[in-house]
Design a protein that fits this description.
The complex is a heterodimer of chains A (342) and B (340). With 342 residues, chain A is mostly helical. Chain A has a single domain (72-336), classed as ABC transporter involved in vitamin B12 uptake, BtuC, CATH 1.10.3470.10. Chain A is built from 13 helices and two strands. Chain A has helices at 17-39, 47-54, 61-96, 108-122, 129-150, 155-179, 182-192, 201-229, 232-237, 242-264, 270-281, 286-310, 319-336, and strands at 2-6, 11-15. In chain A, strand 1 (2-6) and strand 2 form a beta hairpin. Chain A starts with a strand and ends in a 6-residue tail after the last helix. Chain B is an all-alpha fold. Chain B has a single domain (10-338), classed as ABC transporter involved in vitamin B12 uptake, BtuC, CATH 1.10.3470. Chain B is built from 13 helices and no strands. Classes of the chains: A mainly alpha (342), B mainly alpha (340). The A-B interface holds A 100, 149-151, 154, 156-157, 159-161, 163-165, 167-168, 171-172, 174-175, 178-179, 193, 268, 312, 315-318, 321-322, 324-325, 327-329, 331-332, 335-336, 338-342 and B 146, 149-152, 155, 157-158, 160-162, 164-166, 168-169, 171-173, 175-176, 179-180, 193, 268, 312, 315-318, 320-322, 324-325, 328-329, 331-332, 335-336, 339-340.
Chain lengths: 342, 340
């Protein structure tokens, strides 16, 4: 058992050996998937060639182009957005005490999508960082709207209202696309399906900085996540400032989902799947849980992207479609295995 | 017809009939308005002339008869069918959230149609309503099975959640079929978001008989829906064979939904919105709710389709998007107010 205590126990967490082992195993699988993802595709190369290219002795200019310009950024972006969606889902589930919560299911990602599409169509000349900023604003608005209309009460009502909200927001988004210029609309359409194929190094930069910063924010909140999962009264009794915590949890959850959506569009069900996979794997402290969940999300999306672009090559199946195919039956299974009444 | 029907009181009968007449008048106005709107705006009088004193030497008469009337007729029958389907579902299942789209029937019908067009290479519309009906029936049963297996049984909440999950799953499958068959799919793309454009009368002829069967069935069965809405026990006590009647009603709902989807694609939320609006005025007597839903549903879809063509001229918004923009807030409201 490794216990970390920092800042006069404001931050403290424990890692069970099995949790650490699983993290190590997860990282190794991730490396394996990265290697596979870099070598597989319409331009096939073996692992040795990939390695040569990565360390700077590319066998040909083509190898260099394919690995450095297409496959590596795509692979890294897949992992990063997976981690972000997973973290967002874990936090949302903790905040709403609802194991069915997922940022793409309740409309938070769709809010980001609407904001970005609106920006692209209304202010096509403005782009760059504004994309992330408007994504955050859009999803925060949707999250606040759901919180206001859902009020207190049955947590499943929250999900159902979120589904209604998602339907509304994505219908408005599609209507906006009708208005826009056809070329811009077409590129937005590919993005809305949750496709990672246009990832660039600048996406990698933004996302890795954001993921690192958010991971710290999440780990700081980790300690208060356990009392939160016991219920509001219990958390107050244990000394948690519940209003402040609920606000920071909502904002960090929305931030992660919005950043990921701004780059790849709404990827369904990752935020639902990853925390549950972690829970079935190991019972552990919240910090370890968050790290493992981020890792699981990364593996999930990377795997979905790899399968999606190789299974029916040359046709590329957007990763978001594959995560929906896995996620929807999983959602049903979760629904059926709940102990309380629906 | 059945013993559940109470005699109408005279004032109620007059009030309800008057409402029905007003509804019909609104429907006719919307129908003419729908035809008059377009790239070339037409006078109401021109539209009426084209409908009743057709003169094939006049270009505007040709526009009305060949291009615009088919679309208006399709909006009319689809709006009526989907609203009646929604009304029946809400009554029989006592579920305020019941709607052919929300409970998965539409995505099932759409998947069946997509499979038939893409993999069987079906180019005629003749069998499409029937194939779509198979899909709708299967997905309806699947949604119901999943919801019944959930703890607490098939409550409005579990039904809607299972409908959403199954619709999401089917939607992903449809998208993948789309990606794998880009060429054959081009014609289906507009149809899949729910659109009324580019249909011709021939397609209407293939769906119309089914819709008439479904609508007549709904009117005939309406009195027992009133009884079923009070609970299965009460209905059985009133001498209704509950299982048989529910099966008949399910067939009506499936036929109405599937033939609508075959014609216009999955137009969401119409079956949710209209019955709720109608019930606000008409109370709980399905002998009136069914015809009111048919007339106001038809007028509603005509109106929405006019807006779809007016809001962003010269572009046209897919009609299904507008029905969702109107219907989704109602869903949120209903969940907030009607679900405990």
């Amino acid at each position: 058992m490794v216990v970390i205590r920092l800042f006069n126990e404001a931050f403290s967490t424990r890692f069970r050996p099995i949790g650490l082992t699983l993290m190590l195993a997860g990282l190794l699988i991730w490396l394996g998937l990265v290697a596979a993802s870099a070598s597989l595709g319409s331009f096939n190369m073996n692992l040795a060639e990939v390695w040569q290219t990565v360390i700077g002795n590319a066998p040909s200019a083509q190898h260099e182009l394919v690995v450095w310009e297409f496959r590596l950024p795509r692979t890294l972006v897949a992992g990063l957005v997976g981690a972000l969606f997973a973290l967002s889902g874990a936090m949302l589930q903790n905040l709403t005490r609802n194991s069915l919560a997922d940022p793409s299911l309740v409309g938070i990602s769709q809010g980001a999508a609407l904001a970005v599409v609106t920006m692209v169509i209304v202010f096509p000349e403005v782009s760059g960082y504004w994309r992330e900023v408007s994504a955050f604003a859009g999803s925060l608005l949707v999250a606040l709207a759901i919180r206001v209309v859902a009020g207190k009460g049955n947590s499943l009502k929250f999900i159902l209202m979120g589904i209604g909200m998602a339907a509304l927001v994505s219908a408005i988004t599609s209507a906006m696309l009708t208005y826009g210029d056809i070329d811009r609309a077409m590129s937005a359409l590919a993005w809305l399906a949750g496709s990672i194929n246009s990832a660039t190094w600048s996406d990698v930069k933004i996302l890795s900085v954001a993921t690192a910063a958010l991971l710290i924010l999440y780990l700081v909140q980790a300690r208060s996540m356990s009392p939160m999962s016991l219920g509001h009264e219990a958390s107050v009794g244990l000394g948690v400032n519940i209003n402040m915590l609920a606000t920071t949890q909502l904002v960090t959850s929305v931030l992660a989902a919005a950043l990921a959506t701004a780059v790849v569009g709404p990827l369904g069900f990752v935020g639902l799947l990853a925390p549950h996979i972690t829970r079935t794997m190991v019972k552990t402290g919240p910090a370890n849980f968050l790290l493992l969940t981020a890792l699981n999300g990364a593996l999930l999306v990377l795997f979905a992207d790899l399968v999606g672009r190789t299974l029916f090559a040359p046709v590329q199946i957007a990763a978001g479609l594959l995560t929906s195919l896995i996620g929807a039956p999983f959602f049903i299974w979760l629904m059926l295995s709940r102990k309380s009444q629906l | 017809m059945t013993s559940t029907a109470q005699p109408h009181s005279a004032s109620k009968l007059a009030y309800s009939s008057l409402g029905l007449l007003i509804g019909l008048a609104v429907l006719i106005v919307f129908f003419v308005w729908h035809i008059s709107v377009g790239a070339k705006s037409l006078e109401f009088s021109t539209v009426l002339q084209a409908l009743f004193q057709y003169d094939d030497s006049q270009f505007s008469h040709m526009i009305v008869r060949e291009l615009r009337m088919p679309r208006a007729l399709i909006a009319l029958v689809v709006g009526a069918s989907l609203s009646v389907a929604g009304a029946l579902m809400q009554g029989v299942t006592r579920n305020p959230l019941a709607d052919p789209g929300l409970l998965g029937l539409m995505s099932g019908a759409a998947l069946a149609a997509v499979l038939a067009v893409t993999y069987i290479g079906m180019h005629t519309m003749a069998w499409l309503p029937l194939i779509a009906a198979m899909g709708a029936l299967l997905s309806a049963l699947l949604v119901w099975l999943v919801a019944s297996a959930a703890p607490g049984g098939a409550t409005p909440l579990s039904l809607t959640l299972s409908g959403a999950a199954i619709s999401g799953f089917i939607g992903a499958i449809i998208s993948i079929i789309h990606l794998l068959n880009q060429d054959t799919f081009e014609s289906l793309r507009g149809w899949l978001v729910g659109s009324l454009s580019g249909r011709d009368l021939q397609e209407l002829y293939w769906s119309l008989p089914w819709m008439i069967v479904g609508l007549v069935g709904a009117v005939v069965l309406a009195p027992s829906v009133t009884a079923l809405a009070m609970g299965d026990e009460s209905a059985a006590g009133l001498g209704i064979n509950v299982v048989k009647r529910k099966a008949q009603l399910l067939i009506c709902v499936v036929i109405l939904t599937a033939s609508s989807v075959a014609l216009a694609g999955p137009l969401g939320f119409i079956g949710l919105v209209i019955p709720h609006v109608v019930r606000m005025f008409m109370g709980s007597d399905y002998r009136w709710i069914v015809p009111y839903s048919a007339i106001f549903g038809a007028a509603y879809l005509l109106g929405i389709d006019v807006l779809a063509r007016l809001l962003m001229r010269p572009q046209e918004i897919a009609t299904g998007l507008l029905t969702a923009i109107v219907g989704a807030p109602l869903l949120i409201y209903l969940v907030r107010v009607r679900i405990k």
